[in-house]
C-alpha cells in the first residue's frame, strides 16, 4: 500500500474531523446560551456575566471557535459546565463501559449473524432460509428501546434472572449486549446471505463445481474469502458505531457509558461534553473506515495490487 494512498486517507480524516467540530460548535451555540440555561431564569445578570467571562463565552464567536479548535488539536476538549470537570476526564470514565458493551454486542452479532447468513445462502428458498430472513427482518426492525423494555419485563420482572439496570457483574451486561447485538446480527445475516449468493453465482464457482471440487472446500476456500469484502464494510461501520449506536440502549438500562453521558449533556446544554462526544464518535468512524480500507488490501490481493501500481510506474 503506497504512501500517497495513506496520506490521502489521513488528509480526508482530518478534514472530516474539522467539519464535525465546526458543525457541532455552530449548531450547539445557535441553540441557546448554556450559562443562562444552567443558572435558570432567576439568576441575576451579574452572576450570568461572571460565568460567561469565566468560561470565555463573553468573547466574539469567531474567537471562541478558534480557541476551541486550538484546544482540540492539543487534546483539550474543554470544561464541563454541569460537572465542573474537564471533558477528557468525564469521557475517560465513560469510555470503558461503552467499549465493554459495544464490543460484546459486536461479538454477539458476528457469532449469530454471519453463520446464519451462510446457512441461509446454502439453503436458498428453503424453510431455514425463510426462518433466518424472518429473524433478520425482526432483528433490525424492532427499536432498541422497545426490545430492551421487553427484556427487562421478561428476564428481570417476570423470571427474575437478571438485574434491570446498572453495571457491575456479567449479569448486568447480558440484556444490553443482546439488545444491541440482535439488531446488528439481523443486518449481518442479510449482508452475509446476499454476498454469499452473489459469489456462488460467479463463473469460477461453477468451474470449481465442474472440476469436482468438494462443496466444503468450495465454500471455505473460494466463497467465504470473496464474500468477506462486503462484510468487512458492514463490520467497519458497526465498529465505528460503538458510541453513537449505544445511546438509546445505555439510557434504557442506565448503563454508565458515553451514550448516557451524551444524553445528560444534551439535557443540560453542556456544550463542551456534547462537542467532545461528537468529536470522539467522528474519530471512531474515521479510524474504522481507515481500517476497512487496509483490510480490503489484506483480504483481496487484487485491491492491494491496484493500489501499489501507481508507485511502481
Would you mind describing this structure in some detail?
α5 (87-122) packs across α8, α7 crosses α8 (170-200) and α13 crosses α14. The protein is mainly alpha-helical. The chain is built from 14 helices and no strands. It has helices at residues 3-30, 34-39, 45-54, 61-73, 87-122, 127-141, 144-158, 170-200, 203-210, 215-240, 247-252, 258-267, 271-299, 301-312. The chain is flat. It is 78% helix and 0% strand. The longest helix has 36 residues, at 87-122. The model has no long low-confidence stretch (mean pLDDT 79). It folds into two domains: 3-73, no CATH class; 92-312, MetI-like (MetI-like fold, Orthogonal Bundle), CATH 1.10.3720.10.
Helix share, percent: over 70%
Low-confidence stretches: none
CATH superfamily of the largest domain: MetI-like
How does CATH name the architecture of the largest domain? Orthogonal Bundle
- Roughly what fraction of the amino acids lie in strands? under 5%
What order do the helices and strands follow? Answer: HHHHHHHHHHHHHH
Largest sheet: none
Number of domains: 2
Blueprint (SSEs and pairs):
Layout: H1 3-30, H2 34-39, H3 45-54, H4 61-73, H5 87-122, H6 127-141, H7 144-158, H8 170-200, H9 203-210, H10 215-240, H11 247-252, H12 258-267, H13 271-299, H14 301-312
Helix pairs in contact: 1-13, 5-6, 5-8, 5-13, 6-8, 7-8, 8-10, 10-13, 12-13, 13-14
Amino acid at each position: 500500500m503506497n504512501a500517497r494512498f495513506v496520506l490521502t486517507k489521513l488528509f480526508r480524516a482530518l478534514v472530516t474531523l474539522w467539519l464535525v467540530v465546526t458543525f457541532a460548535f455552530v449548531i450547539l451555540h445557535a441553540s441557546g446560551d448554556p450559562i443562562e440555561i444552567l443558572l435558570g431564569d432567576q439568576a441575576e445578570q451579574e452572576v450570568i456575566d461572571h460565568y460567561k467571562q469565566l468560561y470565555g463565552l463573553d468573547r466574539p464567536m469567531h474567537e471562541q471557535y478558534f480557541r476551541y479548535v486550538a484546544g482540540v488539536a492539543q487534546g483539550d476538549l474543554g470544561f464541563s459546565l454541569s460537572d465542573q470537570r474537564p471533558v477528557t476526564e468525564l469521557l475517560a470514565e465513560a469510555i470503558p463501559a461503552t467499549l465493554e458493551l459495544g464490543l460484546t454486542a459486536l461479538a454477539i452479532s458476528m457469532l449469530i449473524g454471519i453463520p446464519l447468513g451462510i446457512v441461509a445462502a446454502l439453503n436458498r428458498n428453503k424453510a431455514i432460509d425463510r426462518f433466518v430472513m424472518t429473524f433478520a427482518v425482526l432483528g433490525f426492525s424492532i427499536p432498541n428501546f422497545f426490545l430492551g423494555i421487553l427484556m427487562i419485563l421478561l428476564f428481570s420482572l417476570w423470571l427474575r434472572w437478571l438485574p434491570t439496570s446498572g453495571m457491575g457483574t456479567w449479569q448486568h451486561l447480558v440484556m444490553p449486549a443482546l439488545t444491541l447485538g440482535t439488531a446488528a446480527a439481523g443486518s449481518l445475516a442479510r449482508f452475509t446471505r446476499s454476498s454469499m449468493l452473489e459469489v456462488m453465482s460467479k463463473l469460477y464457482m461453477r468451474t470449481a463445481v465442474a472440476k469436482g471440487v468438494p462443496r466444503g472446500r468450495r465454500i471455505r476456500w473460494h466463497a467465504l474469502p470473496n464474500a468477506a469484502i462486503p462484510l468487512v464494510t458492514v463490520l467497519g461501520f458497526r465498529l465505528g458505531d460503538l458510541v453513537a449506536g449505544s445511546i438509546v440502549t445505555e439510557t434504557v438500562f442506565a448503563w454508565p457509558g458515553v451514550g448516557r453521558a451524551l444524553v445528560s449533556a444534551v439535557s443540560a446544554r453542556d456544550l463542551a461534553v456534547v462537542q467532545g462526544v461528537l468529536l470522539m464518535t467522528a474519530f471512531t468512524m474515521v479510524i474504522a473506515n481507515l481500517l476497512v480500507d487496509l483490510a480490503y488490501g489484506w483480504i483481496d490481493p487484487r485491491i492491494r495490487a491496484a493500489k501499489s501500481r501507481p508507485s511502481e510506474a
